[in-house]
Amino acid sequence: MQVCFQAPVVTRQRAIDARAAQCRKFDNNSFNGYFFTWVPYLKVKDRDECELNCLAKGHKFFLRLSPKVEDGTSCLSDLEKVCIDGKCKDLPSECKEGGCFSTKPSEARKERRSGIFTSGDVSRGQLILGYNPVITIPAGATNVNITEIRRSKNYLALKSHDSNKYYINGNWVIDLPKGYDVAGTTFYYTRPRRNKAGHEAFIATGPTDEDLDVMLLYQDDEPRIMYSYFLPKDYLNKNQAQQPAEPAGFGQRGVQVQPTQSVTNGNLYVWKLTGFTQCTHSCAGGLQETVYQCSSLTDNSAVEQSACQWNQKPQQRQRICNLQPCPPRWEPSQWGLCSKTCGPGLQIRSLLCKQLVDSNGARKDQMLPISYCPQWQRPNPSQKCNLRPCPLPANWTVGEWSKCSVTCERGLKQRIVTCTDIKNTSVNESFCGHRSKPAITKSCFAGSCKTEWFTSHKWSQCSVPCGRGEKSRLVFCGRKGGDALLSGQCPQAQKPSSSRACNNGKCQATWVTSEWSKCSVECGTGTQSRVVFCAGMVGDMHRQFPDHACLLNPKPATLQSCGNDSCAPEWYTSKWGKCSRSCGGGNQVRDVMCLDHKGQTSKECQSRHKPYHYQR
């Protein structure tokens, strides 16, 4: 194939006009049930200038309607270059001289297949709980985009067309969003987190090397799934004889291209115009779209749409309907301000009489005398407002001053000042306007910024009632007239001592012991313990002392061994074994052993107490 580009004088406006013509081709395509007029969107990065980005006229959004503009469209960043296969490339010298150049047919000859799948595309009328087919993507597809355009509790899934092998989200297991190597390419699976913006989607560059089925794991909610991919035209021509009609329930596929008619089981099927959709408006001009039905040429009967080829379906056309003016109607303005700020007041609004009419294809309002509008429908031009009592007499109420805003030197203090009525309810400050508002700030002095050590005047009592102990006092870092600071903010070499030794005389202390506890074992050798502590008399009170007060005498033991009687051995048995026969009389045996308290074999067990090791 040859793509020929002539070499006229290229201007930026010509490059924009070329994109405008390509955007207009999508004017008759429905997006989410709405039709838009598309114009070029030019505020894109240079790397995206060869994509077809179009702005919905009169709206604040744009879409990438095609991953690339038509080959030969001038680049916007450099008018000496052209877009080829979605890339901005230098124009070959032969084209600059008015000639042409060749591109690969696989890159230049492609057709886009797209549509939107809803539950209305299912032949049985409703989706089943579980996996439902959406669209079959043929081998060789490129620029694949499967996107859920309405958030739901459903999930997209991807499987092989020729087997039941799932690649993504199969067997009721939802996979992580990431890239998956499928059918010779990488499918990027995206799924937004809960409460986050975005849509679930499969995106792949392609080409695919096998037929793939896009499935819907249906759970709840009405699905809306947009699909789009590209196929080489020569692929469509080669496969038109072998491709069977698509199964019902897959929505709009558009993946087979037949010459003019569909042949299924020896029958001919064609698209037939059967009427128009309901008018979008009942008056002042609306739009109707053509409705096509797949019909049999044999008996002119309607058949399933999957019997006809989607690429042969005529393009949707529109016609204007219901041009008569709409009935006159009242249109009130916004309510005005209330006549009073408190107590009963009145709000007023103006009333206009309008009529919606068709004006050269546009729906516009025209003003009419108020006598044209039905008086029985006339809205109320006034209403009562602010039906609340006016606040009681009010005065200023002041709060406590805050701390100084700085830790040293001069700063500011703040307080809350509110206007309150005699019930101590906060009201608008205008009700206290007869008196000047008290100050909400004042200056303050937080002391010198010079730091120094401060100590408490008195030492604490000695830490022990007798013997050698310790006294302590509070030492902190601070500023004169200010608050305490971290100790690291004062010179450590000048820090006063916070403790000193004290001696309250010789302690008359001795060790005190409790009774021994019960032996830890009933037989054999075990241990028993007791409590040992240092105590003595202070005045007429018996007090416990630290252990070092009794160290002149050795501390009594707190543990000792106990129990001299050895434990008698006992008989131990295992579980009964399996019966020797499955029916009739059989035998069961088990192990019987004599063990001491340490688990060692013993011969000291009494034989008259030995359990049976055999039973029938």
UniProtKB/TrEMBL annotation:
Pfam families per record: ADAMTS_spacer1 (PF05986), TSP1_ADAMTS (PF19030)
Record bears the keyword Signal: yes
ADAMTS/ADAMTS-like Spacer domain sequence ranges: 119-232
Matching SMART domains: TSP1
Predominant location: secreted
Subcellular location: Secreted
Keywords: Repeat, Secreted, Signal
Domain of life of the source: Eukaryota
Gene Ontology CC terms: extracellular matrix; extracellular region
Gene Ontology biological-process annotations: extracellular matrix organization; proteolysis
GO molecular function: metalloendopeptidase activity
Transmembrane segments: none
InterPro entries in alphabetical order: ADAMTS_ADAMTS-like, ADAMTS_spacer1, TSP1_rpt, TSP1_rpt_sf
Signal peptide: none
SUPFAM superfamilies: TSP-1 type 1 repeat
Protein's UniProt name: ADAMTS/ADAMTS-like Spacer 1 domain-containing protein
